[in-house]
Amino acid sequence: MRAQFVLSEIGVGLRRNLTMTFAVIVSVALSLALFGGSLLMREQVGTMKGYWYDKVNVSIYLCNKNDAETQPACARGAVTEDQKKQIRADLEQMPIVQNVQFETTDEAYKHYKEQFGKSPIASFLTPDQMQESFRVKLRDPAKYQVVSSAFAQRAGVQEVEDQRKTLEPLLNLLNGMNIAALGVMALMLVVALMLIVNTVRVSAFSRRRETGIMRLVGASSFYIQIPFIMEAAFAGLLGAGFACVLLVGGQYFLVNNWLVHQIDVIQFIGWDAVLAKLPLVLAIGLLMPALAAFVALWRYLKV
Hints:
The protein is α+β, with helices and mostly antiparallel strands. It has helices spanning 3-16, 18-53, 81-93, 105-116, 144-151, 168-206, 208-216, 221-262, 271-300; strands at 58-62, 97-103, 133-138, 157-162. It has a 4-stranded antiparallel sheet. α6 (168-206) runs antiparallel to α8.
């Protein structure tokens, strides 16, 4: 096979179908950028789960003197010192409990003022209106129900709360965005494949005389098809390259230079995660159009 002839045929095909080739490059770039972004978002959600689930606690809120009339669980009155000692002792004996911290009403009031000091309600609260609580760190946060079933009905306990519930809406939102991105990616991928097939068919039709002559002189089907396949692969590789630029630019400008300064409570993924996805994006960008072109030629090119 003469490499010079194949390369010249590739150049001819790209020039003849410049507009459609550009459309293929853009479609492949957008679809693969969404694909890479979806992979990174899924990894980001996993990182956030591991980071935050390792920090969240199970909170056991105790009854105070103001809860007897408003909270059915506290109908028997405020928690006593003996009850607090018994609850702590039982918690420390549980194998799933890593450590236990007791928060007084003054500490709870201080933490509330730090977090919600600008709230209109904050000016009316006093320390005696806050609740004492045990902050329980579990070895496995998924075993919250073990603590809940053991202490939810205890005398002096108002509520057992799993702090993971405050993270679930955010994580569900990110998962939803990830699914939406995958849906748009699939749509763009279908558009890109249709453009590749049509581009190859138009290119093959415009060069049907040359391919007919090549067949008459004994050229193999693969030799005739390889320029078309390489045209599609080259366009796909260019699109994948632009997708990589978009992913790197998104990490640098959106994440590193903006989000990390706006949201300091989230541990964002780093460059290692982004760079690990680039070879996959390039491989798909190269192989997907080549395979689509091969199928189109096998079906439509009469050689």
